[in-house]
Design goal:
Structural class: alpha/beta
Strand order of the largest sheet: 1-3-2-4-5-6-7
Distance between the termini: 25 Å
Number of helices: 7
Number of strands: 7
CATH superfamily: Alpha/Beta hydrolase fold, catalytic domain
Order of helices and strands: EEHEHHEHEHEHEH
Number of domains: 1
Largest sheet: 7 strands, mixed
Strand content: 15-25%
Length: 219
């Protein structure tokens, strides 16, 4: 296990190709619930080494009010450092190969912040965006999965972020999933939308495999 507090590591069972590649995974405001480890295992099955960061020191919940309390009580100053440490640790683990980031909501924001530093090679993000000024500093390809109804940000926020990425010459793909709300891809909470989440996940794995390379298909 890498020396990253609370991290979960999943690695392919066999060499995936001429180069290894990895993904730093950052949970949403509910914490590192079981689905976070599950998607790491699925990324490993697809040939990508996955390292999940724990921003809450092991605390989790499936209740939105408790999740809000976890966000309020988290160490916000330490969070970016943990993501950065995980990125550097994973880069070493894959022997200098490409590294991407995957994050949902709160974790998506920290994943995007890591992308602004130029230290990752692809970013797959669920219902999260940064300000337009930050978008201009992202150069790696970005995949965005958005909810049809998002209680936290209006459509204009995401539209502005996407426009800023495009204006900066950044490759960006975006999908808005009908019939969904914020957190629709979290398998452990009530707002989970199985059909849409499964389609989004297939697109995410394909995107990461394409841009990071060195990965094999499951099975």
């Amino acid at each position: 296990m890498p020396d990253v507090q609370g991290a979960y590591l999943a690695e392919p069972s066999a060499p995936s190709g001429p180069q290894r590649a990895g993904v730093v995974v950052v949970h949403d405001w509910y914490g590192q619930l079981p689905h976070v480890r599950a998607v790491c295992d699925e990324l490993a099955a697809a040939g990508l080494t996955a390292l999940a960061v724990d921003l809450y020191g092991g605390r989790t919940t499936t209740d939105p009010e408790q999740a809000e309390a976890l966000v309020d009580g988290m160490d916000r100053a330490a969070a970016p450092t943990r993501v950065d440490e995980a990125t550097r640790t994973l880069r070493a683990r894959v022997e200098g190969g490409p590294v991407g980031v995957l994050g949902w909501s709160l974790g998506g924001m920290y994943a995007l912040a890591q992308a602004t530093a130029g230290t990752v090679d692809a970013a797959a993000i669920y219902y999260a965006a940064l300000d337009t000024d930050d978008a201009a500093r992202i150069r790696c390809p970005v995949l965005l999965h958005l909810a049809e109804v998002d209680e936290f940000d209006p459509p204009e926020h995401f539209e502005g972020f996407i426009a800023a990425l495009e204006a900066a010459g950044t490759e960006v793909q975006s999908h808005t999933w009908p019939g969904t709300e914020h957190s629709f891809a979290n398998r452990d909470v009530a707002l989970y939308a199985p059909a849409q989440a499964e389609q989004a996940w297939a697109a995410t794995v394909g995107f990461l495999r394409h841009h990071l390379g060195g990965a094999r298909r499951p099975g």
